[in-house]
């Protein structure tokens, strides 16, 4: 097990996923060692010298002004995970982490997100000034905690899609646009990602916000030797979809329609209830079927806000398919899972694997992490099992001292 | 495409699966070319010289005395497949096939099946005499139709489990038991399988009846150069299970319980309502989870007879699993499919692939057909995608003129 | 049983509900006597002298130019009801009815409906001219068939909501608006309803289109001695809702959220996929909960077009409720029914009961028909069982020669 | 509000329902006033002078030797109701109540229940001695707490059915059988019920055990002026069934099959996994459909033990029905509720209403409580809404000072 000190910078640090990530690491530190849901705790990853969960240091930023303690209480109450006794036990740890949560930026985040924000440090400045301020946050956190590495994870609310233009495809052109403070080319997520890569911090986009890992930022990551990956953590309905869709191929059954309805009641659901934010989400969920099946059945993904559900996302998918002699049959599923508790272990996995990749000298996209994402960048493989095989192969090679990783 | 004349001998020829197999082949012959549900009609199998669907000749046996025409009408009415006009069009073909449906044996089939049978040719004789009579049926059908090959498929109702003893593990000992007419060592399915292998006919056990491919019969198949495979066609709930269960591994989520409820109303459902017959079925469904997960969650499979459903099998599976920090979540699915229409294309696939294997000189078990079975013999791989990969690999090698097939 | 000759004028005569109404009556006439789904065929209605199903004469109008025979074939193929043999048997009857299907009007129907229409008789004329033409259609049909009575039923596609103004609340003012050809005050449904009431024809609005039974038209119905009723036939999800919601009252369980998702693939679904048309539908579905529960939980009804489902409407409702000590629990249901086959028997019931009401000298709204409608006019009772009790009470009184009906 | 001191004697006092009853009353006493799920807290019952929840005194008996505190902790952890802080707050109250929990009897309870019992006070004695001992428990509790009334509620695990003989139909004959210590004529539940009625304590059988309110005991209740009622609290699947089944009548839709599957993991589920105990439960669930529909569709109720679910009972019901022109359609529902939290408010309601009935001088069965039971004694009405109307009518009359209650 590595002895290096690794920091995790959570963008959206007061949200329920980030809070659960912190709770999970603290719970491990306090001795529960309950790591169900984490792949990096299974046998295949034992030999990779991954950073231990109890050595992670957390900081981050948020637009809201809440208390981490309240966010933690909310998670515990809504999900039944852990206990209020445990919350008392870790109260000081939470206070300490809270001191490392800074203000973030709401640049071009859309109305839904802006309404959530209390204030923002960067209202007045140029993009370059914002980038500099954020880089400063990273550096100061690393110094304060004597960190060997800092991994940045985007867990913020989903932004409206960023219209991708030519300027996003070329690092030089993009830098020039920043220099002339062209406000149309960035969203908040772009600024965090750019800053992370500039500072050499591995970066994970766990959200569908397409503004984060634009081609220019990926190009910079390749040049700077920084591993990055996204988009959109695959936690629920899409996870099931990517496991089930190949079944229809294995039987030459033709999917006629695949209609999915998601209801949830947390902040994520609230923001996604806004059509422009929802658009990002639905886009990253939508391509899975076509990529797996090789054709595009009638398919729509719907997301609706049902406050009483809070973090318990519920999804109903109705799959209509054609079988032998043209007969129609169906498969339905109902998924009921706590969004944050499904996401948090993936975030912890990704942090550890991103740190490993950096240490191994990898740069740019990390296609072996495809199984973690709804819309994995640089990967055409959308079948869950095959994606998982890619991860195991990577672990095998990395564990065997093999420098050339597939 | 092969020009050879291939026969298909259907044990349980008046049942709905057999009837649908025949309807499918006739529909193809009449020009519909609707082959959704058949893997052997997809690209990967084009180069293998598989027998064309319109060159298959059907015969078989049954315990009931019904008309094939009525069975066909029943399938059409209950599933909405094809049309009554089509039935009129093929009426003479059905009459012709019906003339090749012989009486079968009910030897040790259990009470539920015996009650269905009208009469049986072999009431009085010894096992050896029964075997001889059945071999005679095979031979005479082959001659009458000038067949190059005859594939035997067991589609009969599920028998009670045959208690496997030492005598079943050794061909010599088993032959000796037959010689002394030891009635305890066989069920009807054993007799058909033994006769098929003796006659050199590739044999497929599409049912869970464990009496069919006992080790001694497999041993004989290996010696005689006869390919055989079973058990229990994977058409519905277990298909979904073998596609979904690996997902929990890919996320290190712990399955706590997987409770499955199947309701159906066809003859199969009626026979499976008898506890002793159900036992066979449930056994072959039950091992899937343990084999895939590597541990055994609380899991039971229930099958109940609901007459109004007829052929439309409906299954509800409730999967309870543990996620991060010990929280419990769930996935449910409801599968609604026409049993016969799910099974028939698999049977047609298996007939074609068994004939290919015989032609290629393979003998004994055909592990590359694992994806077709709930309890594939000689195979430890129960994950659907990996099983399918085995089939594609086989097709690739067989298509490439490679004689050594994995 | 009454010997009077009763006509049924179907607005939307080529749609699947109208076609199924006709198929049902013809099937009865040909001897099947299969009346499952019709309340007026149960014991409580035997003494009321309701018109026999085999004495109904059908005519109507449509915007499309299709053949009734094709519509019938479509219904038979998609639902599995009846048989193609039966279709042949009634081919001439269908041809005869088709000759009585006239062109309709698309006045202010919205883009979605207009696109479906091939041509319209009334493109040029004033509203008054349209009314006169439609009255002419009614009269000429009555004469041609020597009818004692003609019941008009609106089965047309859902229109966008008509903004209700002061002018709609007063018959005089409304008539004046028609006189000055004020095009903003009517939709097609208004014109049919107005014409029906003017001609003394009982009128049923089986659709959610609020333009049909505006207050002024109801006022005219009261004056003219014409019974009318609406809105929106209660066939599926809302039916279940009105049966289930009272359960939560009977247990003092608090409904937190009731989120309903409807998917369907027929013409109705296609039109409802247009937001402006959907608005009408969702409105009439939406009030059920508040009326029953006495408070308004979080609740939305969603309707989406999934072509492969055709007439088989599928609905998933997720009901989240609070129980003792504040714990959250849930009830989900999935409804799978053929829309037309659920609606048609209700239409036949309504025609018979409207004819009875006219004969009994009733005029204006028929609140005893509340159980048939999603948004019953003039009724505050939304609980299914209580609504049904109202119908039985009416039947009891009408059967007992009691002239004063509750 | 009545100032009388009322005791509640819980048979099965350490079970989860009893524990939740106690938790609910204590939570009310401590000020939460959360009474969702209780009908007697709604407006219609305000004027009846029902005993206030915070004046109830709890005692009872159990076969197990556990701590009430642990049972309470279990309920809180598994259901998410209340909090561990609350548990600390009421710890002394629980200790006090625990001192009033006595040993019970396991007489003829069947193997499944006997295995749960640690010891029993009455191993040696005759039935008459057991009755006397239990009467003594009641009397001593009443004296110790200065109670005006004691209501006895059977919440014990379901016993195997008691074969009802002639002797059970006549009080004299039954008393004689007790005198000669005929062990075949009683189960534990009989002894409690007989003792309660002898002591003049209103008695509620919340379980399906048919041994409790045998005709002879009801006869004695009528003579002694003691109100009694049962059987089997209607909390989940059957509740939904009794709300939904009338819908099919209101539409003249024919139920073909209604197949219900219940899975649960608490003690109740564990005991019901034993076929002989399950038989009692299934019997009381089974008659609902026939009573409501007037005919008996294919219908079976299944109950299975799935430990991981603990108290969260989950039920899937598949309802297959025939609509117009013979087409088959379906309705499915999935019910997910905490068994104890559904049952406890009913128990509190029943205690208050039984005390009221006693005070009002009623004796024998209380048919107005039908809506609370799966198999209400002396009642032919099984439709939920109508049963509820019976309760409201009773409340109206009792509230209006009307002595003659329907």
Automatic annotation (TrEMBL), chains A, B, C, D:
InterPro entries: Myo-inos-1-P_Synthase (IPR002587), Myo-inos-1-P_Synthase_GAPDH (IPR013021), NAD(P)-bd_dom_sf (IPR036291)
Pfam families registered for this protein in UniProt: Inos-1-P_synth, NAD_binding_5
Transmembrane segments: 6-28
Keywords: Membrane, Transmembrane, Transmembrane helix
GO biological process: inositol biosynthetic process; phospholipid biosynthetic process
One example GO MF annotation: inositol-3-phosphate synthase activity
Domain (Myo-inositol-1-phosphate synthase GAPDH-like): residue spans on this chain: 236-340
Family recorded in the similarity comment: Belongs to the myo-inositol 1-phosphate synthase family.
Name the UniProt record assigns to this protein: Myo-inositol-1-phosphate synthase
Organism: Desulforhabdus amnigena
Lineage summary: Bacteria, Pseudomonadati, Thermodesulfobacteriota, Syntrophobacteria, Syntrophobacterales
